[in-house]
Write a structure and sequence with these properties.
The structure is a homotrimer.
Chain A: H1 4-15, H2 34-52, E1 64-69, H3 75-87, E2 90-93, H4 107-113, E3 118-125, H5 132-148, E4 157-163, H6 168-182, E5 192-196, H7 208-217, E6 223-227, H8 236-249, E7 252-256, H9 259-263, E8 268-271, H10 277-289, H11 294-308, H12 318-321, E9 330-331, H13 351-380, H14 384-394
Parallel strand pairs in A: 1-2, 1-3, 3-4, 5-6, 5-8, 6-7, 8-9
Helix pairs in contact in A: 1-2, 1-14, 2-13, 3-13, 4-5, 6-7, 6-13, 7-8, 10-11
């Protein structure tokens, strides 16, 4: 646990950054300059320490945090609710089955209707390739217009809780985990991270996690290696971004076709399954057909699972781990993992490997709520450094004593 | 934005009203004397201004606002949640599918069981003609008895979030919109408002909005004109109320059979679809039959849609708008509207008309949350004028700085 | 309503108890020494009085209370939400259909993932015999490990909101009702309480209420009589506990086979239906088969209802009530009751009997929320006596004035 002085040092460092997040959104890490990324990291860490120090972080009193989960969620749902609670926001989930959204409301209208007292809108929309990010952008543009037109008194920040392109609250939590593990952002320079595909008996897992990882870690001077079987490509545009990042920030970005190669001398490994972009495209088309697409969906699923099963050897085993730097690479996962002999017979990771890194992955997950809370603060307040200083000075306790 | 002095002036004006709402409900506007209506308006406006001035309006700390939506809702759901959050109440939605209500609980019992720490119960029950209001009254009577019998420490206020008869949070929001548009309640005197039926491809829309409008606007010295095709009558009793109101309050109430006639020289137009009372009666009977009524429901729906389609010319077009006072009547709608070529091929309103009034309708919608919050305060506190004075004096910020 | 002095006296009494509940759970009353039970009673009563005295009991500011209802619930759901609101916790319900729980998450992992900012986890899991309590214990063990391993900053308390074995928030509410009725815990000594089966047209009611009652009331020096038709046995282990309790605490525990015998000279009667343990065992096996068990379930249900119908004379009638002490035994029920001629044609209790005790059963139900709040405080704070003293001294109002 940090002392108040140490927390204040971080807050001061925050104040020296040139950030431009107020009244904006957090949708994709690569849209934000490194100053913004650093700000999210600093605020996350400060909030974590303030929570541990039993300092109330409430800054809102009578406003909503709206969530819209267009796909199932446990961790992110609880992270969002926890972040909202931490800051004093009341969560209101928009359940599209109970609303009139399906009755012909336009996005523009609904976005404004739910925003009169709303500070933050969190959206998960990862099922439809080519659409999730677009939808989030449409919501953001709608409330931006509503705010400028004077309909909204405040301009809610839209936070991407996973879309078809990025999963920034996950990748930022992952980065916080690396900082906690290695001590600082600077210490990541030159480290090799292997983001590799892994076999899973499940089908249609989103690509946003690997895309988020290569899009963010390539900005830290790391050697980012992406590995996947032939055909399991990510969205080309984002692969491009990773390449350009590496050039700009002085690291490297390589794509290889075997787990072995990726793991060799890696400091960090992130083995995780995903569906190839071509399958996601077909799947999106079928999802749009609704019931009519059900038969096609079953065929696609079988094909896809069959194809996956050609790569059952893409499993993070002890043998593979022994290839990593000193045999001791940090294993990462966004959870839940498919663990061989635990929740499946053949999966992404061997039981013994996962068990060794189980607690670290729990810590990795914990950071997500603070990353979300940090995004909430930075999109909603013009000067978070001063705000947090005042919160510290206020000295209210999170738990009354 | 008003200054604190202007807000205080409104609060003082509130203190001079002779109101009798404490420990009661808000179910139908016509059950309340004009003093009550004025009180709701003043408190709504005061709360709006206090929100804009970043003043915390929290007055509750550890109590529930219970909502029971027996029909879909977006706007009203968020308005209720926002109003609760504004005042410090925690929302708990009663989802009848997850409760034991269907297992033989009496209304009387359930109403008390959910009320031990509850300050407000909001109910939407608009599907069953002849029953929605009755149900709300039964809940209100049950908690009234529970309070008098000492079961409940406090007596929750029941707020009608739309029933088969009235939609008071909507009509009060509409009235707030008129006050904001024209400057004062008094300035509405002599203005002509046309509440007219409009064509919609959808079927079975509730009658509570037009009933709410004619029931309320007829008390302001306005010339209220109701227009609908033959057979699209509203509940006769409420039409009667409108007529008597007009006599009593010095305006007029007329029913005409064409949109043209209603629009001519109108200051305000409110074109909106609804189902005729006869259809709602049949529909209610069929809804009660559950699955057994499904076939009949389909027949009724087809009949009704077919009948609607005879009146496709009941559309709020530019041509019709040109008939209004200086061609510039204020267009109103409770949203979502069926907009021709936007969310349907033929609807209630032409795209160009709606687009011109889109922002005003958003503002119209915004008031609903404050109207609900005002009803919450006035049913739960004996002296809201003093309460708000003390809230202002307390000077706590809604957003910490 | 008590004075502040009287409340402080209770809080002082609490401080003299030797309790060991901090950082633990509340799953079954018989796992707790009488000092713990007394502590829950005192804190419940203190909170009730503080609520009545308009004192804010908020002690949390930015933490969650997680609920997981694996069966329908109205009363307990609202009691949990109310208790959370009273103490300042934000409720987050884990809806397993919207989460990834079904996607292979282990209990251990999920329990930690939802607990980063969580102070309390309330679980209802009463459908599967032999499993509900086991599941709650697994969650408790998982977060205990997470806390010890440093994953969790605080250790949430797990509160049993009804399992297959006990329903402690109900039995504690029932005991509070007895204390309020008879004046003190001591005054219950020597009183005869009849926990008897009663006929219901419904099938498969859980056994946790009668088990909870005999497990708790047998510790108060009461004469506990359990009555049920042949074959409607409770879990033998818990019947044993009741017997041993009676010996240890100087009361008695008897099982009889007729309602008449149980009611004779009883001070208190608790007539309530439940399914026999053998049926619950078969039902659990069928529930596990999912759709495949549906046909078997229907057969079992018919058998069970048919068997129940042999005991329609097990109804709490006026005649039976006249057998009780002075004909005036206190009638108790956890609600909702099956009331003859009210919500069924033949049920657990005659209309006239229920109506006479309707208000008392409402009071009985009210205590549940305070019992839950007391369990929350006692599992989450090491010294609740000092805490409540400080809350009183703080003097913040629950409703601003």
């Amino acid at each position: 646990m940090m002392s108040n002085d140490e927390i204040q040092k971080m807050i001061k460092e925050l104040g020296e950054l040139d950030i431009d997040m107020y009244n904006k959104d957090f949708l994709q890490t690569w849209e934000h300059p490194m100053e913004d990324i650093k700000a999210v990291l600093l605020v996350s860490l400060a909030l974590e320490e303030m929570y541990r120090a039993n300092i109330s972080c409430r800054v809102f009193d009578g406003s909503l945090a709206v969530s819209n989960f267009r796909d199932k969620s446990t961790r992110t749902r609880f992270s969002f609710a926890s972040a909202a609670s931490l800051l004093g926001l009341d969560v209101q989930d928009i359940d599209e089955s109970k609303s009139q959204v399906s009755h012909g409301e336009t996005v523009r209208e609904t976005a404004n209707m739910i925003s009169f007292l709303t500070e933050v809108i969190g959206i998960r929309d990862d099922l439809f390739l080519g659409e999730g990010h677009k939808y989030q952008k449409e919501v953001a543009d709608s409330i931006d217009a509503g705010f400028k037109e004077g309909v909204l008194v405040q301009r809610p920040g839209v936070i991407n809780l996973q879309c078809d392109r990025d999963h920034p609250t996950q990748s930022m939590a992952d980065l916080l985990h690396l900082i906690r593990t290695y001590g600082s952002l600077e210490s990541l320079k030159g480290k090799k991270i292997a983001m590799t595909w892994a076999y899973s008996p499940a089908y249609g897992k989103p690509m946003s996690v690997p895309q988020g990882i290569i899009g963010l870690m390539s900005r830290l001077g790391m050697d980012v290696v992406l590995a996947h079987p032939e055909g399991y490509d990510l969205i080309p545009e984002i692969v491009d971004i990773a390449g350009k990042n590496a050039e700009k920030y002085g690291g490297s970005f390589t794509i290889v076709e075997s787990m072995e190669e990726a793991f060799r001398d890696a400091d960090i490994v992130y083995p995780k399954s995903w569906a190839p972009v071509t399958v996601m495209e077909k799947r999106t088309a079928l999802l749009h057909q609704g019931k009519a697409g059900a038969a096609g969906m079953e065929v696609l699923e079988q094909e896809c699972i069959k194809n996956n099963s050609r790569y059952k050897n893409w499993e993070c085993t002890e043998e593979l781990m022994s290839l990593t730097k000193d045999g001791k690479a940090l294993y990462m996962h966004c959870l839940p993992a498919d663990i061989t002999d635990v929740n499946c017979t053949e999966g992404e990771v061997a039981d013994s490997v996962f068990e060794r890194y189980r607690l670290p992955t729990y810590h990795e997950a914990e950071h997500k709520l603070y990353a979300i809370a940090a995004m909430m603060l930075l999109t909603r307040f013009p000067d978070v450094s001063t705000l947090l200083t005042n919160v510290l000075d206020r000295g209210e306790k999170r738990r009354f004593e």
